Amino acid sequence: xxxFSDVPDGKIFQCEAIEYExxxxxxxxxxxxxxxxxxxxxxxxxxxxxxxxxxxxxxxGDYVLNQPISKAVFEGRESAGAYTVVERPDIRIPTxxxxx
Length: 100
Fold this sequence. Notes:
Helix content is about 5%, strand content about 45%.
C-alpha cells in the first residue's frame, strides 16, 4: 500500500504497490475478470526514482511519496511524462471466481 497526494489540490490517495521485474511499482487501477478468476494492473508506475519513504508496518502503508503526483497519471488520463509507466503488464493475479 502506498499513499500519495494529488496535484494540484493536495488530496491524499492510496494505491497498491506490487513487485514486478524485481522492482516496486504503483498500481494505477485494476482490470478484473471475475468469471475467469483473475485481475491484472491497468497500468504500473515505477516507484524507483520517485522521492519516497519506506514506511512498512506503519498505519500509512508501506510507502509514502514525498511529492505530489497527478491522479490522472494513475488513471491513464494524462501523459506519463517523466514517469516510467507500463500499460496492461502481463500479470494475472488469481481472485475467487465470481467475486468482484
